[in-house]
Amino acid sequence: MKRTVSAICTGTARPYNGAETSAIAKRPREGTVQILTDGFAPDEQADRRVHGGPEMAVHLYPLDHHHYWREQLGAIALLDEPGAFGSNLAVSNLSERDVHIGDKFRLGSALLQISQPRQPCWKIEHRFSAQTGAAGMVARIIKTGRCGWYFRVIEIGDTIAGDTLERIEKGDENWSVLRAFNALIAGNGTQIELEELAGLPALSPKLRERAKAKLA
């Protein structure tokens, strides 16, 4: 599996919704970009409790979903931005059904591994409601499973827009990102699924603990 990365996006924390700050507005970068243990350098996350860090170093939100949301929401300008959902990587023809927890991908000279689905947060809700005047974006993401995902960085390196994102090793083929999202974040997991996720080594520790908590 090889896909071209059409844009690499990063951002800085800026005022957002009053007293809050956010770096969700990611913009395309030119030239070579470093990928370090915590992600692209530089790339900020305003609230490190829920974003960023080694287990959520690089975010990919599939570009194909932008087309879907245009059909649902209309031709809003925000969806023309490759980083509209806070995504670092703009990639087409790839979805949550196609990739698995633990899949390893080569990007430039870096090696990435899928660590978890992305849980939509209030900042996505605010960003899209400000553009459309309608609430409910987080609920739509959860209902459809169009969540995106995070990578951890196994080997640091460099990349540039136009590079290939190539899967070089599959993770757990039983656990697509979509299935993990539905089980853990959408809340539809059976006891057997939660037990499997609690013991899935490639899943981020935070979500393994969530699976354990749901079992308890």
Q: What would your notes on this structure say?
A:
The chain has 216 residues and is of the alpha+beta class. It has a single domain (2-172), classed as M1 Pyruvate Kinase, Domain 3. 26% of the residues lie in helices and 27% in strands. It has six helices and 13 strands. It has helices at residues 63-73, 122-132, 137-144, 177-184, 191-198, 205-215; strands at residues 2-10, 14-16, 20-22, 27-28, 33-36, 39-41, 58-60, 89-91, 104-107, 110-117, 149-155, 157-159, 164-169. Strands 1, 4, 7, 8, 9, 10, 11 and 13 form an eight-stranded antiparallel β-sheet that branches. Strands 6-5-12 form a three-stranded antiparallel β-sheet, with no helix packed on it. A two-stranded antiparallel ribbon has the order 2-3. β9 and β10 (110-117) form a beta hairpin. α5 (191-198) runs antiparallel to α6 (205-215). The protein is globular, with a radius of gyration of 16 Å. 42% of the residues are buried.
**What's the number of structural domains?**
1
Radius of gyration: 16 Å
Helix content: 25-40%
Distance linking N and C termini? 38 Å
What fold name stands as the CATH topology? M1 Pyruvate Kinase, Domain 3
**CATH architectural label:** Beta Barrel
**Largest pleated sheet:** 8 strands, antiparallel
Identify the CATH class.
Mainly Beta
**Annotated CATH homologous superfamily:** PK beta-barrel domain-like
Provide the succession of SSEs. Answer: EEEEEEEHEEEHHEEEHHH
Strand content: 25-35%
Poorly predicted ranges (pLDDT <50, ≥5 residues)?
none
Overall pLDDT score: 91
Number of helices: 6
Oligomer: single chain
Structural category is alpha+beta
Overall outline? globular
Number of strands: 13
